[in-house]
């Protein structure tokens, strides 16, 4: 027992011989009582000594066990309403250099709000929390309704926050706080009264908190809600007050304090230490919001016990009553709420795909069937009895991971006393556009890597070997693989920090992780990754006539078979053909619009074969062009039959056959416009003053430029054309392949490209097979011009730009 300045307490002392002192009060005692030290006078005082003799009212102590009666002042509302002292933790408002705060304005208030405002001002002026102000800047105020129906005043500090230098002190991770209580059996939760008001505004900064009302301008002397740095300031203060107790038997998130212990006797001592710390630092709790000595407790929106973690049932009820979403703001609110509990909901990332797509910029808000189904399914997920157990470091961990082409998912599990595998956490997310380009092996490996990153604090340094369950058998050889690319090498270095083995399981045995990445109803959102060397901006949809797509949609509305399938889909029944989907009232199959039976099918083929934008290309290229956007049963046979019977193609195209002789390929370029070929098509009918075409082809991307010339140009003129049409757009190539035309072997041409650093390769005389790709493009261009200039041979020059477009966007057949 000790007593100093009228304050008493108990402490464990070491007995020893002290010749000069009766007792030495060490750091443990100082940390326990936390007195104020005056280094000038060399005295210590207790900041709230007078509180120990005050008695709280009976209502202030309602619900507090009698054994904590000595801490009645901690629950005293009258004391909490007093102006707190200045501390080193006062809230400083540091403005950015050159910040200009505008003069405040007034918001219009209703009669009830004006009454609530007057009561707020009277109450806080009496407490000393605010005072009249003559600040040159002030924030407007408005009111929001509490759950009880009362009105709460809010200061609109958005402008002040914009110019305030941010305090980056971190708030605790809620997931980590919840994991700290593993193994506890008794809990007490304390809620601080007027939390932010327990901190003073730094002296001299009060004017920055000024707010305007119809009753005048006032400023805060205590820290108000709404300041951007308020959470960081308060968390720093409360962490320092309980620094030695945090994670021992206390976890704190702002004004919520959770005390946890393994038995009742130990718990009482822990609660007393916390209350004593509050008492010594002039902090107060609200008894009506505190809970004492319970086996499980609601904390930060979760129901916490020593063995498991559950969602707050009140929050689940709130989701059940959530009305259908009507605006983007409604979607943001709902997803923000649901995201807080994503660790309880398997497949959360994919469940929310149709909803998150509604939040895209420049996209109109259309509440369709997919969004409605996702909304209902997400609400039903809150009803599932998804209870998470606390990870136990003394037990082995099991990680189940899986990936699809557009998402990944993982489950962290451990076995309970009965041997049943119980989840400790769920995780899922969509793949980024870059990750969607990974191979299947890399996607499955990425799912494991992400799982290890999310639960690193449990898995790194685990006492037992981690078992990773995957339905991708090749991953069993991950740790012995010999050939790895640069990305896989980086991942291998990351995996070296963990002791794990990969265990192959059949897909049907990997249901939980599989459900996180392969939910069937979300396959409609699977993105088809464009595996092409062309930039996406270079690709477009080719339609022969404006309105063809609209005609197909109108035809679907009158087609009996189409409407039958849409009715089956809307009722949730299986359709006759697989992969059919209802996309806002349009029947599609894997993203391709269904074309009903009739003349429209022939029109679709004609638009993608006969039109100038299509180019009368062959049967396989036409199939590829149409299947980008449309589908109907046996469409391939219809397209092949049409192309084989095309009269224009039969008249204009030259027969093709297999090449003769021994061939060797040109070097394969590594990037676009690294190696190019060029040639002239000459002796054409005069068209707009031009008689020949200079053809330049990139051997990497197969892109080509068709440049009309009045005659075959001399080397200096050709150099100017090269600079204007090629160098300006693509830079200097490393290699140019051409025939032995005089222009290409001239001294001027060679010297010109020596300056550019380009190597010139010329073919053997009378051997066009040297550059087969260029000759192929020449043949396609000549074929195109024959198809569209058969009746007007002198009009070929106006078709060149369209021919270049058609050739750039044709599909290659392999």
Automatic annotation (TrEMBL):
UniProt name for this protein: Gypsy retrotransposon integrase-like protein 1
Domain Reverse transcriptase: 125-304
EC number annotated for this UniProt entry: 2.7.7.49, 3.1.26.4
Regions annotated as coiled coil: none
Organism: Anolis carolinensis
Gene3D superfamilies linked to this entry: 1.10.340.70, 3.30.70.270, Acid Proteases, HIV Type 1 Reverse Transcriptase, subunit A, domain 1, Ribonuclease H-like superfamily/Ribonuclease H
UniProt keyword terms in alphabetical order: Endonuclease, Hydrolase, Nuclease, Nucleotidyltransferase, RNA-directed DNA polymerase, Transferase
Protein family: Belongs to the beta type-B retroviral polymerase family. HERV class-II K(HML-2) pol subfamily.
GO molecular function: nucleic acid binding; RNA-directed DNA polymerase activity; RNA-DNA hybrid ribonuclease activity
Domain Integrase catalytic: start-end pairs: 668-814
Domain of life of the source: Eukaryota
CDD domains per UniProt: RNase_HI_RT_Ty3, RT_LTR
One GO process term, biological-process aspect: DNA integration
InterPro entries in alphabetical order: DNA/RNA_pol_sf (IPR043502), Integrase_cat-core (IPR001584), Integrase_H2C2 (IPR041588), Peptidase_aspartic_dom_sf (IPR021109), Retrovirus_Pol_polyprotein (IPR050951), Rev_trsase/Diguanyl_cyclase (IPR043128), RNaseH-like_sf (IPR012337), RNaseH_sf (IPR036397)
């Amino acid at each position: 027992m000790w007593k100093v300045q009228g304050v008493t307490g108990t402490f464990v002392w070491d007995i020893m011989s002290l010749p000069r002192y009766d007792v030495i009060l060490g750091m443990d005692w100082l940390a326990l009582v936390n007195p104020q030290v005056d280094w000038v006078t060399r005295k210590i005082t207790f900041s709230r000594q007078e509180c120990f003799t005050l008695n709280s009212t009976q209502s202030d102590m309602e619900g507090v066990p009698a054994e904590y009666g000595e801490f009645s002042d901690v629950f005293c509302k009258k004391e909490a309403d007093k102006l707190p002292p200045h501390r080193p933790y006062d809230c400083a408002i540091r403005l950015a250099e050159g910040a200009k705060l505008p003069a405040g304005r007034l918001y219009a208030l209703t009669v009830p709000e004006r009454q609530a405002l007057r009561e707020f001002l009277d109450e806080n002026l009496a407490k000393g929390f605010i005072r009249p102000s003559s600040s040159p800047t002030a924030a407007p105020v408005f009111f929001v309704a509490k759950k009880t129906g009362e009105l709460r005043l809010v200061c609109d500090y958005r402008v002040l926050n914009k110019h305030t230098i941010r305090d980056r002190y971190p708030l605790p991770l809620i997931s980590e706080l919840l994991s700290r209580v593993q193994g506890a059996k008794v809990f007490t939760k304390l809620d601080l009264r007027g939390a932010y008001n327990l901190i003073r505004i730094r002296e001299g900064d009060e004017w920055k908190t000024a707010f305007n009302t119809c009753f005048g301008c006032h400023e805060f002397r205590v820290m108000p809600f709404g300041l951007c740095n308020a959470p960081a300031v308060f968390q720093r203060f409360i962490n320092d007050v309980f620094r030695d107790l945090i994670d021992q038997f206390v976890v704190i998130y702002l004004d919520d304090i959770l005390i946890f212990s393994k038995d009742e006797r130990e718990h009482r001592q822990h609660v007393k230490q916390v209350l004593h710390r509050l008492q010594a630092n002039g902090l107060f709790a609200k008894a009506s919001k505190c809970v004492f000595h319970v086996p499980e407790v609601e904390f930060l929106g979760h129901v916490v016990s020593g063995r498991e973690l559950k969602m707050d049932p009140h929050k689940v009820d709130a989701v059940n009553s959530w009305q259908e979403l009507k605006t983007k703001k409604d979607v943001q609110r709902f997803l923000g709420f649901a995201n807080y509990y994503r660790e309880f909901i398997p497949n959360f990332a994919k469940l929310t795909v149709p909803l998150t797509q509604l939040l895209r910029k420049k996209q109109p808000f259309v509440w369709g069937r997919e969004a409605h189904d996702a909304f209902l399914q997400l609400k039903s997920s809150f009803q599932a009895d998804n209870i998470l157990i606390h990870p136990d470091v003394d037990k082995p961990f099991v990680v189940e991971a899986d990936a699809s082409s557009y998402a990944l998912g993982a489950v962290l599990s451990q076995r309970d006393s009965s041997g049943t595998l119980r989840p400790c956490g769920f995780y899922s997310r969509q793949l980024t556009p870059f990750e969607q380009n990974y191979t299947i092996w890399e996607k499955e490996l990425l799912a494991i890597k992400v799982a290890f990153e999310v639960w690193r604090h449990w898995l790194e340094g685990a006492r037992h070997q981690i078992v990773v369950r995957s339905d991708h058998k090749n991953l069993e050889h991950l740790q012995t693989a010999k050939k790895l690319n640069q990305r896989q090498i980086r991942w291998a270095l990351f995996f070296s920090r963990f002791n794990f083995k990969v265990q192959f399981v059949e897909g049907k045995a990997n249901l939980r992780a599989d459900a996180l990445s392969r939910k069937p109803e979300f396959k409609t959102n699977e993105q088809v990754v464009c595996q092409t060397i062309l930039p996406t901006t270079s690709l477009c949809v080719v339609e022969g006539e404006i309105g063809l797509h609209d005609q197909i949609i109108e035809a679907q509305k009158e087609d009996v078979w189409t409407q039958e399938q849409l009715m089956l889909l809307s009722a949730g029944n299986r359709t006759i053909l697989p992969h059919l989907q209802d996309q806002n009232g349009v029947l599609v199959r894997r993203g391709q619009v269904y074309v009903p039976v009739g003349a429209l099918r022939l029109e679709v083929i004609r638009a993608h074969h006969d039109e100038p934008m299509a180019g009368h290309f062959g049967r396989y290229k036409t199939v590829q062009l149409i299947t980008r956007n449309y589908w109907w049963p046996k469409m391939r046979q219809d397209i092949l039959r049409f192309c084989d019977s095309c009269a224009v193609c039969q008249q204009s195209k030259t027969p093709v056959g297999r090449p003769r002789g021994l061939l060797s390929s040109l070097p394969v370029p590594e990037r676009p416009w690294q190696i190019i070929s060029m040639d002239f098509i000459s002796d054409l009918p005069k068209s707009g003053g031009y008689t020949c075409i200079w053809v330049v082809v990139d051997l990497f991307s197969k892109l080509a430029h068709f440049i009309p010339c009045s005659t075959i140009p001399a080397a200096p003129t050709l150099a100017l054309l090269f600079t204007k049409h090629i160098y300006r757009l693509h830079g200097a190539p490393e290699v140019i392949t051409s025939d032995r035309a005089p222009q290409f072997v001239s001294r001027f041409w060679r010297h010109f490209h020596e300056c550019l650093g380009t190597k010139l390769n010329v073919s053997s005389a009378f051997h066009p097979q040297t550059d087969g790709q260029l000759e192929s493009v020449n043949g396609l261009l000549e074929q195109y011009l024959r198809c569209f200039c058969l009746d007007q041979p002198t009009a070929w020059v106006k078709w060149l730009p369209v021919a270049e477009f058609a050739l750039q966007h044709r599909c290659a057949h392999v």
